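Allow me, if you will, to draw on your knowledge of protein folds for a short while. The matter concerns a single protein, recorded as an amino acid sequence and a row of backbone structure tokens. Kindly check, if you would, that the fold set down in the tokens agrees with what the sequence suggests. You will find the record immediately after this paragraph.
***
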Amino acid sequence: MNDIFEITKQFTFEAAHYFPNMPKGHIYRKIHGHSFVVEVTFHGKKNRNNQWVADFDSISATLEKIKKKLDHKCINDIKEIGLPTLENISSWIGKQLKKKYSNVYSIKLSRPSCGEFCLYKIK
């Protein structure tokens, strides 16, 4: 069979950020916080030996390391992210995961209270 599957693991974090590039007096220029939801999707065929696309236990451990870098932090302090936009944060998360998982497919980063999300599809 050539069945292709997508599996997704979710985690949440709370973080602050600000945009120093915004005009003086703009609300985004002030430090403020959000609740974020991250959904990481893996894509591929089932592994022949264990019949899964990816090991959720391994994924959970890796995501916990990423969460520790973000949770209750100021995202601006993570220099590799650059400006702390949804696009840049999701791209940074994707790069962290690509180091370990070749079949990571997408990162969905949401701010539910704002009704906003970014879907980053990894090539």
